[in-house]
Amino acid sequence: MNPHAQAAATDALHQAIDTLGETGLQVVAIHRGEVVVDAWAGIADSSTGRPVDGDTLFTGFSMSKGVTATIVHRLVERGVLEYDAPLARWWPAFAAHGKGAITVRHALSHRAGLPEFRDLDPDDLPSLAATGRNLEQVTPDWAPGASMAYHGLTYGTLLGRVVECATGKPFAQVLREEVTGPLGLHDLHCGVPNDPAVLARIATLVASGDPAPSTGLSPVTETERADRAGPAARFNSESYRAGCMPAAGMIATARDLATHYAAMRSEGYRGVRLLASATLAHATVPYHGDDGSHVEWTSRMGLGFALGAARHPHCGVDTVAPWADAFGHTGMGGSISMYCPSQDLAVALTKNALAPSRFTFHTWNLALRSIIGSLNHSSHER
User: Which of 121, 209, 257, 359 maximizes the CB count within 10 A of its CB?
Assistant: First the structure.
């Protein structure tokens, strides 16, 4: 542990609670293969006053996409999947209604033409089988690759179902075999087990509180609060926590998410290297639609990973990190996990207060800058 970085990160988390409407948070940083920050603060469950600790589990929302992308890339490396092969090669029923040309690459890069489910019962969202049947019956909005838009939930079904069909195994089992098992992780789940000891560690999601006047940010509006309270209630439910949603439903600690990204190091981490250098180089090239379009909240999206050095259009800070070679993924409400090769730095921030878009990544920016500054200070002291 780096004492300067640990103290700075802890202070940043408390500052975020005091000034940015946060409730409970964790942040973990792994620098040059060593854990330099493992900090937490705040409340996991406001109704009971249960505090956050290092073992608290948080809903990752779209941070799940980065983990799912890792699984897909690992399967491509071994020849189980192919980037430019159609999903229907492994999932024949998907070809119906003009979807036979949609490839793994199109799905990873949000260019499949299926940004939303059609007429899906919200109760079916936690079922990968049910959402898969929904996509089998729809017609794409555009030809594969012609345009690009965020496939917020459909991304997980497109890739989750093809992983299941190609391997013949449930997605959660593939997650264990490809990521959590090799790294010895026990707190990264796609479908939380029905174990009281595990369930008791999950943080309750809430809508963000009001930012302090000192930030210059206006209070959260009723519309913004409702926009976050709805997803919070759904993802707090037993069915959503237990279900399989590879795009948005993984539940984890910051420790396990940071470890996942630290294992992208060229030297590996804990004796494991998840992806080869050539794979990472391929996965971190920015994509656009043929019409020049890009994902709504970032201009730099690779094959399943959001890329660094892209400003968020609503809150004006770097979405992932200030470095162009950084990659990872955001989660709704302001959580982020990522790795930056040039800095040899993996960081994960988990949280349970869902901030509105206009200041959704302010806490991340505060925490990351505190870590960077303290690491630079420590380097200059040597």
Answer: 257
Residues of the chain with CATH 3.40.710.10: 3-64+185-381
Q: Residues 6 or more apart from 193 whose CB is under 8 A from it?
A: none
User: Per-residue pLDDT tens for 33-58?
Assistant: 999 999 999 999 999 999 999 999 99
Cα(95)–Cα(27) distance, rounded to whole angstroms? 42
* Residue 217 DSSP code: P
- % residues pLDDT > 90 (the chain): 96
Q: Around Cβ 19, how many Cβ atoms within 10 Å? A: 18
Q: Is 164 helix (H, G, I), strand (E, B) or coil?
A: helix
**H/E run at residue 347:** strand 345-351
Q: What is the 3-state secondary structure (H, E, C) of 232-287?
A: HHHHHCHHHHHCCCCCCCCEECHHHHHHHHHCCCCCCECCECCCCHHHHHHHCCCE
In the beta sheet, which residues pair with residue 41? 25
Please give the CATH architecture assigned to the domain spanning 3-64+185-381: 3-Layer(aba) Sandwich (3.40)
CA 359, CA 62: separation in Å to the nearest integer?
17
Residue type, 36: V
CB 359 within 8 A of CB 211: yes
Q: Which of 258, 260, 238 is nearest to 249 (CA)?
A: 238
Q: How far apart are CA 95 and CA 266, in angstroms?
A: 38
Instruction: Kindly report whether the global pTM for this prediction surpasses the value 0.90.
Output: yes
User: Pairing state of beta strands 345-351 and 335-340?
Assistant: antiparallel
Q: Are 191 and 238 in contact (CB under 8 A)?
A: no
What is the rounded CA–CA span in Å between residue 285 and residue 367? 27
Distance from C-alpha of 234 to C-alpha of 354, rounded to nearest angstrom: 13
Nearest Cα neighbor of 257 from 117, 7, 61, 113 is: 61
